[in-house]
Amino acid sequence: MRLRKRTRRKIQHLPMIAISLITLAIIKIISHDIQIALRMFTRPSLVQTKPDTFLKDTNVAPNYGENFDAPYEYVLQHSPVYSKHIGARSSDISHEQGNAKIIQAEIALKPDFGNHRFYEDAVFTVANTMRFKDVVFFVRTLQKSGFEGDIVLSVNLDKPTNVTDFEENLDRQNLEKFLKSNAENGGNVVVYNGVIRSDETDETFSHQMNVTKDYAYLRGLYKVRNGNAVFEDERIPRSIGVARFELFWVWSQQYSPESRILLVDGHDTFFQKAGEDGIGSRHSCTHANTTKSYQLHIYEENNKGMKHRLNKIQNKTMLLFAYKNRAVMGFVYNENVLTPASTHGHQRAVDAYLRAMVKHFDITQCAYYRCEWAFHNYLFYTGALWSTPGIDEIIPHMQGTGAVNSVRLDVPLNESKIYDPRHHIVFNRPMGDGFHPSWAVHQYQEDIELAAYIEGQKDDMLKDLDYSKVPILKPAPVFDRKYKDCVIAIKPTHGAHRHAQDAIFSMIKAKDFDKVAWFIVSARKVGFEGDIVLHTPKLELVSKRISDFLKDQSKYNNVVIYEDCIRSNESKWILHHAYAEIGSEKIVNDRRPPRAKAVVSIDLFKIWIEQYDESSLIMVLDGEHAYFQSNPFDMKVCLAFELYTQTLVYREVNMETLAERDENMYAAFQTIFSAKDLEYFQDTEIITPHALFGHAKIMRMLLIGMANSFDKHLCYSYGCDFAVLNDLILNHRMTAVEASIMYKVIRRKARKGIISPIKDKHEFDRNTLKIKDGDKGKASPVILNYKNAIDPHHTEFFAKRLEELLQKSEAKNV
Q: Could you give the CA distance from residue 798 to residue 795 in angstroms, rounded to a whole number?
């Protein structure tokens, strides 16, 4: 009886739980965070039984958790070479098992121009039916949006038999010239010509053909493994929309699992600058910062007026034709249409998705125009994709959110809030933080005004087209202009850098044991396992306790020590014996004038950062005034190269009040900033160079930019590090960063970031003995000037706590 009562009680709570969830979703929607609400209630769930109810015994039930075969397996199994061994020479046979010859397949297809870069991101599109100026506009806007990955295209450069039009032939020749110029000499375009062929004429598919009626096959995709024999396409002729997914799969095999790949319909798509994040950057996810979840992003069709529901446009999505059972429509009844025209994600997830799409063509043999829509929607709504190995997370996007904005039903755009007709910018829908420009704009041709503007832009772009210039792939900034003829000669005196690790950089005086110990041991206590790189005076000149401690930490805890590399030169400082001439290895003296120690430290940090992978997270910190409450390196940033900066703690310290507080530093700001800028930024809080955090790639650019700015303005005195940093960030002078979606700069106010400078005792929580973030109410990961927050009666606690940590550290070392 008790068991029954408990069961009934649980059932009684279910309506309340359901009402609470619905209420939460409504609140989310009201607060503009529609995307979160969508993801909470978008079907299917990871554990799903409804498809089985609808599709049981119908021969269309999905196979959950299926690891779909590589697409060449179907070709291999249906090939006469496989079934009869006809035409297979001994060199074409991969291996033998007993007396039976076993033939295997592999990818044979290679690009006509350009090369895939394994560790880059990529955008895939089929441009066979696009005009010359359409291809140019697609490529150029994508490049100018800040995308630095590969642009992979299928095109037609062959002369069709019946085309004699002079302009048509000229466009084809110019297209080849344009693609070659963007594929060679460091370009980022990869071109495949003649792969998609007309089944009727055997010519390359081109824009003279009808995509709704003409059928295609794919040529030269696969060959016998370790042999030369190329397989014919054994699949039935199909629409180009269906065929492209197999070609996309072949391309996807050229990239790393963490590469971001966008599959997009390029016909009516262009790209804008300053899109929110694009599809992210693979490079921020190498080594220590590997992605935790391989994601697939899919998009809804524009559903304005509830017009794009699967039950209302059954013929267009071909679901009934493909799966031949109304049970499918019974399950997806009234669901929003998902478009296969724009899908992106990590390569590992995209690979699994493409395998599934090709497999469902093989299962259904649905070859007609728009059959790919049936596969795409079926795989999602039945839950088959959710359980496919390789896909950890599927993120469905409402129309107008995410990387791709399909604007079709929002026309006319000039009557919509998502369009700025004056500057011709299309925005994503506001998601709680205002409007942001869309990265990719799809279906723009549906809007008369925008389409006319874009056509004009295309014509202007062709007029200014210079085949000798590729506006992409800016070279990395020169490491140090003063030492172009030199190599780095300086080496650590204790410890060694680990290239694939994260790192903390700090200058320490090594006079106060407690400060040094708190810094290092607290970092290790919270779980930081990367390198701690220090510049110190000669250890023989510091106390034995500090010297022994640092040497032990170097030996056991990956502390890297550089002794006495920054030396006094009268009242200023120089970098000692850091470089040597190439070839002779002769040591070169510092080529910059004596300068403030903080300015010299930027040159040293610039040398250290060369020892780390571009995806490593680097923290530049005033170590002797810092301790760790949690591990900021656990954030595993994996979307873009990010740089976090912090303002000084005193709210009243800004450009206007700096002159009164610190006239020497203000003199440095006057050297770097114009009078107009000082007035413009008079209320702006000052960013500190003693609390920087971010990926090594963007941190390297910052440090190089600071060094170059010191030289440009001849600013080497006290305060120049502050002035130059603020100029670079506030005036957006890191041009490579500003132009690319691969980078993101975040400016945090004091007590609202990863590193929190503090100023007084009131910020210290006496109950938890931690300092909390002023924004989130959580303990700040790293505290600067922590002694400002310690009441005298807490000093004893900290001393005791330090002693405990040191004892644990010493025990671990032993």
A: 5
Residue type at position 487: V
Phi, psi of 464 (to 5 degrees): -95, 5
Show Cβ contacts of residue 705 under 8 Å, excluding neighbours closer than 6 positions: 477, 728, 733, 734
Q: For 608-645, write each residue's pLDDT tens digit.
A: 999 998 889 999 999 998 889 889 988 665 667 889 99
Model pTM above 0.90: no
Query: pLDDT below 50 — which residues of the chain?
Result: 1-11, 27-51, 53-54, 57, 84-100, 305-306, 432-433, 811, 814
Q: Which of 639, 609, 621 is nearest to 700 (CA)?
A: 609
- Give CA–CA dist 562/649, Å, rounded: 30
Domains of the chain, residue spans: 2-45, 105-463, 481-813
How many other CB atoms are found less than 10 A from the CB of residue 386? 22
Judge contact between 706 and 596, C-beta under 8 A: no
Q: What is the DSSP letter of 464?
A: T
Q: Count CB atoms within 10 A of the CB of residue 636.
A: 13
143 contacts 469 by C-beta, under 8 angstroms: no
Which tokens hold the place of 76? Answer: 């291999």
> Distance between CA atoms of 752 and 678, rounded to whole angstroms?
25
**What is the residue-wise DSSP string for 476-508?**
PPPS-GGGTTEEE----SBS---TTS-EEEEE-
**Alpha-carbon gap, residue 770 to 790, rounded angstroms:** 10
DSSP E strands in 741-795: the ranges are 743-748, 755-757, 764-765, 770-771, 782-784
Question: Cα separation of 122 and 189, whole Å?
Answer: 10
- Angle between helices 597-609 and 696-713 in degrees, nearest 10: 140
Counting beta carbons within 10 angstroms of the beta carbon of residue 771, is it exposed (0 to 12), middle (13 to 18) or buried (19 or more)? Answer: buried
**What pLDDT, on the 0 to 100 scale, is given for residue 415?**
59
- Cα(698)–Cα(692) distance, integer angstroms: 11
- Cα–Cα distance for residue pair 449/416, rounded to 1 Å: 13
* Domain 481-813 classification at class level: alpha beta
User: Maximum distance among all alpha carbons in the chain?
Assistant: 92
Provide φ and ψ at 605, rounded to 5°: -60, -35
- 479 contacts: CB under 8 Å, gap ≥ 6: 606, 610, 704
